[in-house]
């Protein structure tokens, strides 16, 4: 079995195996407001990666001493 260092990443012309040059990014797609019940949401597709995020709030922090109008909790 080969190691990661044995794997060929570029062809003889210096292009990646999917045809992109070394400086080219994978295609990216971003959609916003994809979830109805969230206050904010997005769907991101970048190459083979798919990400869906949602934001609900603002809500009060608990315990109360952690509340700060200049900060957010993730």
UniProtKB/TrEMBL annotation:
Q: Name one Pfam family in it.
A: RNase_PH
State whether keyword Nuclease applies: yes
- Residues of the Exoribonuclease phosphorolytic domain: 25-66
Leader sequence residues: none
Q: Spell out the molecular function terms from Gene Ontology.
A: exonuclease activity; RNA binding
What's the name of the protein? Answer: Exosome complex exonuclease 1
Q: Which family would the database say this protein is a member of? A: Belongs to the RNase PH family.
| Region Disordered, residue ranges | 1-22
């Amino acid at each position: 079995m080969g190691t990661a260092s044995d794997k060929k990443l570029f062809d003889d012309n210096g292009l990646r195996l999917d045809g992109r040059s070394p400086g080219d990014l994978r295609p990216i797609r971003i959609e916003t407001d994809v979830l109805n019940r969230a206050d904010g949401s997005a769907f991101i597709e970048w190459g083979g990666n798919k990400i869906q995020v949602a934001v609900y709030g603002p809500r009060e922090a608990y315990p109360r001493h952690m509340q700060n109008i200049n900060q957010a909790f993730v």
